[in-house]
Design goal:
The complex is a heterodimer. Chain A is an alpha/beta fold. Chain A is about 35% helix and about 25% strand. Chain A has three domains: about 5-245, 3-Layer(aba) Sandwich (Rossmann fold), CATH 3.40.50.300; about 250-345 and about 430-509, 3-Layer(aba) Sandwich (Rossmann fold), CATH 3.40.50.300; about 355-425, no CATH class. Chain A contains 18 helices and 24 strands. A six-stranded mixed beta sheet of chain A has the order 6-9-10-3-11-12, with helices on both faces. Chain A has a six-stranded mixed beta sheet with strand order 18-21-22-15-23-24, with helices on both faces. In chain A, helix 4 (about 120-130) packs across helix 5. Chain A is globular, with a radius of gyration of 25 Å. Chain A starts with a strand and ends with a helix. Chain B folds into two domains: about 20-170 and about 245-395, ABC transporter involved in vitamin B12 uptake, BtuC (Orthogonal Bundle); about 180-245, no CATH class. By secondary structure, chain B is mainly alpha-helical. Classes of the chains: A alpha/beta, B mainly alpha. The interface of A and B includes residues 336 and 369 of A.
């Protein structure tokens, strides 16, 4: 029908060392439509948008970008902006101490001679704010505005730069329901004014309500584009199965576990954002972990899974309420050391940023959380250290040149095993694993699953947070699903499917 | 034979390239010594001047030992010069104006150092104020404190027992009357020291073999131990054939041994390196970062007191100018000694070598009668170069 494309991305392939993030992606957007781009975490949406915006400059990828029939090669964001492309990221790029008008014109100030023409600036700002239906004084500092209003300021900023293609990356992730509704309405109005929108979201309900076209990415490939605006039927279930799509093979060593008594009990757990004291990051969550089971926690990015684990571990949240009970004893955990002492350990999501001291060797990293075990009166027993480090790294089959190898030089999978060694050395009763297999190869993943199965046999209770649905379904015994800080579902592995979990995580009921 | 020769060469080359940073400071020190020996027609390398040099390096060395911990943890302390002067002034006033004996003066000075360390550490660790700011404030506050305590006057002279800490030498037994010449007590001590070093190296090697770690081939290890042994002997030799080992060198040796142990063998030391290397990983491993940070500044305060005592004793006076620019020499010494400005890396021993280098530069320039403007420019430039070298070598490593 209408084959008037404002943007065509043809056969885009982008590789990082060891990963093919985008694999011959084709993405075509019609003039004046709202085009939703959906996919699981890591499907390649953000990478694709970084290619579009010039953040990954021409030459660092294969394929071509055609805007209005003209082939483009963007060397940077400036060029893509000049072509009318504006990307609004989840983390807003506003200077919070500057006022609304200053932010709108940042880098493109309206001047007369060498000086900024403030009168003209404020007048123009008011016009732009009216266009996005935001009723605030352009002299108000941005930090006084809510997240929703800040988002609109970003859009106004994009409009000032004559954006014709507006990319919104998870714009409603941090908004409440009425703010989201308002934003969706404004996007519709912008469409009616002739602005084309690319809308990235995990919330399928929103996608269904707003999108004229929907493109699904999976594992760096385009799966399909559908056009609800032309009456093509698209249900949430269809989108989900396109997003998840892949077959489960023998990638997961499924072992029957027999769960024992309850080891960890979390009741009415509520945690507030340390940055915004009134915002609940975790909202009244209760659950149990039993000895000898793997409890999976699924959910989308920003659902609060990491915050849940870190707050139980004593490493997150200014204000917390609720109780954590370990083996029948109520705990008071203010710091990670309290948790470690009582037998709760937390393996972080990002091993390089938060797990390892990269310039230290394997011995020192593996004993970092167990100094009480390898020292007496504050003096380290280096022999004891070596023996402990050797025991755990041998158990986990860390491949290394020697125990004195600097951890920076290990492969991702082996780094992760060193982090695991560190936490197993604390002899935890409950082990919280946050994305334990992210960014490591299939073989190393399999080994980590085997380690988990072995620990469970020894009676450890494991909580595994993962964004990889196949893994959640493939290895856990029970699955909790979180959305926006709340627990929205729970399933036994026998009844769980990737579709059913994605359905709950995206807010379907 | 030639085959063996080549492997020998390749191993040595390998060692050199892998430990470039450690060797770089020795090379720099050697270069400075050669340069000044030439420029001063040999005056620089006399026994007398080298002994002086060690005395002049003493307060920088003591401060640098503490600065290693501060910088390894990712902080900085700009107040050490002023604080050293301030505590020296308190000590001098207590003794000269109030007639206190030496021991109580030392105890009070150390207590003041610890208290001030607590004060600065509190602001950094528990109030989250960058150490740069806290100690910049301290730099001014303590400088003001010196003027308040001394009333702008020079406070002198101190009692002989106090002076001995900064200018005295170990006693002679065989020939108590001689001032210079072979010093048998020092010679025996030096011999024991070298023996202890060799035994410890051999024991370490045995242990490493036992646990299956890499060791150097026996020949090269023997060569290395011999070389270091000769260096230590040369170091003590210059002292032994002049007036003997100064008390302050004993103090520095003791501090070096203690702090090396602290950094390498204690939980505290390990945790400081960990939090300097990756603060978040350290926090999530259960390390109490605030308490560690507080203790680092307490240690720095204590060492500032020791340096203040030594410095005042050597000059036999306290004045309003005491300790000016010493923070610069200390930071430069620490970084020349291999402590990384990015945190997480550094050794106490390296800092001592760095202090020796900074003192050598100061001493050499004084011998050449360079004016103080030139001296300041050179010292500033050395600090800049040292940091540049640190950052450049890190970058090439990654």
């Amino acid at each position: 029908m209408s084959d008037d494309y404002i943007l065509e991305m043809r056969d885009i392939t982008k590789t990082f060392p060891g990963v093919r993030a985008l694999d011959n992606v084709n993405f075509r957007v019609r003039r004046g439509e709202i085009h939703a781009l959906v996919g699981e975490n890591g499907a390649g949406k953000s990478t694709l948008m970084k290619v579009l915006s010039g953040l990954y400059p021409a030459g660092s990828y294969e394929g071509e970008i055609v805007v209005d029939g003209e082939t483009m090669s963007f060397a940077g964001i400036r060029q893509s902006e000049a072509a009318g492309i504006a990307v609004i990221y989840q983390e807003l790029a506003l200077v919070s101490l500057m006022n609304v008008a200053e932010n709108i014109f940042l880098g493109n100030e309206i001047t007369s001679g060498a000086a900024i023409d403030w009168a003209k600036s404020y007048a123009r700002a008011s016009e732009l704010l009216a266009q996005v239906h935001l009723d605030v004084n352009p002299r108000v500092p941005v930090q006084k505005l809510g997240i929703g209003a800040q988002q609109l300021v970003e859009i106004a900023k994009a409009l000032f730069k004559n954006a014709r293609i507006l990319v919104l990356d998870e714009p409603t992730a941090a908004l409440n329901e009425s703010e989201s509704e308002n934003l969706l309405n404004i996007i519709r109005k912008l469409r009616d004014d002739g602005v084309t929108c690319i809308y990235i979201s995990h919330k399928l309900e929103e996608v269904k309500s707003i999108a004229d076209s929907i493109t699904v990415l999976r594992d760096g490939k385009t799966i399909e584009t559908r056009h609800p605006s032309e009456g093509e039927e698209v249900t949430e279930a269809q989108i989900i199965s396109m997003m998840v799509g892949r077959e489960l093979t023998e990638r997961f060593p499924r072992v029957e576990h027999t769960a024992g008594e309850t080891v960890l009990e979390v009741r009415d757990w509520t945690v507030y954002d340390p940055e915004r004291a009134d915002r609940k990051v975790i909202d009244n969550i209760s659950f149990d972990v039993r000895k000898g089971e793997i409890l999976g926690i699924a959910g989308l990015m920003g659902a609060g899974r990491t915050e849940l684990a870190m707050s139980i571990f004593g490493a997150y949240g200014a204000r917390r309420s609720g109780t954590v009970t370990l083996e029948g004893k109520k705990l008071t955990i203010n710091e990670p050391s309290d948790a470690i002492e009582t037998g709760i350990s937390y393996v972080t999501e990002d091993r390089k940023e938060k797990g390892l001291v990269l310039n230290m060797d394997i011995i020192k990293n593996s004993t970092l959380a167990s100094h009480f075990r390898v020292a007496s009166n504050g003096v380290l027993n280096k022999l004891e250290e070596i023996l402990e480090a050797r025991e755990y790294t041998t158990q986990l089959q860390v491949k290394m040149s020697s125990l004195e190898q600097i951890t920076r030089n290990l492969s991702g999978g082996n780094q992760q095993k060193v982090v695991l060694s560190k936490w197993l050395m604390t002899k935890p009763k409950v082990l919280l694993l946050d994305e334990p297999t992210r960014g490591i190869d299939v073989g190393a993943k399999f080994e980590i699953y085997n380690i988990m199965n072995r620990l469970v046999e020894e009676g450890v209770g494991i909580v595994m947070i993962s964004s990889e649905l196949p893994e959640i379904v493939g290895i856990t015994d029970r699955i909790l699903v979180m959305q926006e800080g709340r627990l929205v579902g729970s399933q036994d592995w026998r009844e769980a499917t990737q579709e059913s979990i994605m359905h709950m995580a995206t807010g379907g009921r | 034979m030639s085959d063996q020769e080549r492997t020998f060469k390749s191993i040595v080359a390998d060692q050199l390239s892998h430990n470039m940073k450690q060797y770089a400071m020795f090379i720099a020190l050697l270069a400075v010594w050669v340069l000044f020996t030439i420029l001063t027609n040999g005056t620089f390398l006399t026994s007398r001047n080298i002994t002086n040099l060690f005395l002049q390096a003493s307060h920088i060395a003591i401060l640098a030992v503490g600065m290693v911990l501060v910088i390894v943890a990712g902080h900085i302390d700009l107040s050490v010069g002023s604080l050293m002067g301030f505590i020296g002034a308190i000590a001098a006033v207590l003794q000269v104006n109030f007639g206190w004996p030496t021991l109580p003066v030392i105890l009070v000075a150390m207590a003041v150092g610890v208290l001030i360390g607590l004060w600065q550490g509190y602001w950094v660790a528990y109030r989250g104020i960058p150490a740069f700011i806290v100690t910049l404030a301290g730099m001014t506050i303590f400088r003001g404190g010196i003027i308040a305590v001394t009333q702008g006057a020079t406070i002198a002279p101190l009692q002989e027992s106090f002076r001995a800490i900064g200018q005295g030498y170990l006693p002679r037994i065989l020939n108590p009357e001689a001032r210079t010449g072979f010093h048998e007590v020092s010679a025996v001590l030096a011999g024991l020291f070298i023996l202890a070093y060799v035994i410890r190296q051999i024991a370490n090697r045995r242990k490493r073999v036992q646990y299956g770690f890499d060791v150097l081939p026996a020949r090269i290890e023997a060569l290395r131990i011999t070389l270091v042994g000769v260096l230590i002997a040369a170091f003590f030799g210059t002292l032994v054939f002049y007036r003997g080992i100064p008390w302050v060198v004993v103090v520095i040796l003791a501090l070096t041994l203690f702090y090396s142990f602290l950094t390498q063998n204690t939980v505290f030391g390990r945790q400081v390196y960990a939090l300097g290397g990756n603060k978040e990983a350290a926090r999530l491993s259960g390390i109490n970062i605030r308490r560690r940070t507080l203790m680092i500044f307490v240690s720095m305060g204590f060492l500032s007191a020791v340096a203040g005592i030594v410095f005042t004793a050597r000059l036999n006076a306290a004045s309003a100018q005491a300790g000016t620019l010493v923070e610069l020499d200390t930071i430069a010494a620490t970084i020349i000694g291999g402590t990384s400005t990015l945190g997480g890396v550094g050794t106490v021993f390296g800092a001592i070598i760095g202090a020796l280098l900074m003192a050598s530069v100061n001493n050499g320039m004084s011998l050449m009668n360079l004016s103080s403007d030139v001296q300041m420019i050179v010292r500033g430039a050395i600090l800049l170069l040292a940091v540049w070298f640190d950052i450049a070598s890190r970058r090439s490593q990654n």
